[in-house]
Write a structure and sequence with these properties.
- With about 220 residues, this protein is of the alpha/beta class.
- About 45% of the residues lie in helices and about 20% in strands.
- Helix 1 packs across helix 6.
- The longest helix is centred in the N-terminal third of the chain and has 18 residues.
- The N and C termini lie far apart (about 45 Å).
Length: about 220
């Protein structure tokens, strides 16, 4: 039986190999928020690799079954969680919906696309957890439609304290297939980074805003 750590290490290696996650402590990326970051993550790249896509889908299913049990509906968060969620729903034989980042400005002005009914249980699928803000907007929209959100599953989390507090405050359990600490461990083992990079990467995760100021 594959343990969480075994699966998480394997996913970390996949994400690094296909450059879904890039680590560059010396030449940081700039996020939309303005933060300087030594990490860039685009988990949508996993969809282009059938073997990796299949493995991730299997781990989503295992996590859902182990942590939550089978829901009535799978909901993907736009945009990164849409394809992942549809794959999971197909495998589980469940209805699928997705939640927009904001309501449409025309037509039915939907935020939830698809059919949900009050009282149905939902698992929310994300590809990435940063601060948790956009993910929890989707949870709020589903709860507003009368759904019972059992929890959320994502491929990867940066592990920010802010995200932990946000999910706790909103009473939403979140599980991830891989996390920042395991990623750094695998990146070092596989020589994507060096020992001297590790401390900088840890400092960024502890305080990304200050890291950006101090390293600029």
């Amino acid at each position: 039986m594959t343990s969480f750590d075994d699966a998480a290490h394997k996913i970390a290696e996949f994400l690094l190999q296909i450059k879904a996650i890039k680590l560059s402590p010396d030449k940081p990326y700039t996020w939309a928020s303005g933060w300087k970051s030594p990490i860039y993550c685009d988990n949508r790249k996993t969809l282009s690799y059938p073997a990796i896509r299949t493995y991730i889908r299997q781990q989503y299913l295992k996590t859902i079954n182990d942590s939550f049990g089978k829901p009535d509906i799978i909901a993907g968060v736009a945009t990164g969680g849409i394809a992942q969620g549809a794959l999971v729903a197909q495998e589980m034989g469940l209805p699928f919906v997705y939640v927009r980042s904001e309501a449409k400005k025309h037509g039915m002005t939907n935020m939830i696309e698809g059919v949900v009914e009050s009282g149905q249980s939902v698992i929310v699928i994300e590809d990435l957890i940063s601060t948790g803000g956009s993910s929890l907007k989707a949870v709020e929209a589903l709860r507003g439609a009368g759904c019972n959100v059992k929890g959320m599953v994502a491929i990867f989390t940066y592990g920010f304290d802010e995200a932990t507090e946000n999910f706790k405050r909103n009473n939403c359990m979140v599980k991830t297939l891989c996390d920042y600490n395991i990623l750094i461990e695998v990146a070092l083992q596989r020589k994507f980074i060096t020992e001297k990079d590790v401390e900088s990467l840890k400092q960024w995760r502890d305080d990304p805003a200050t890291w950006g100021v101090l390293t600029s």
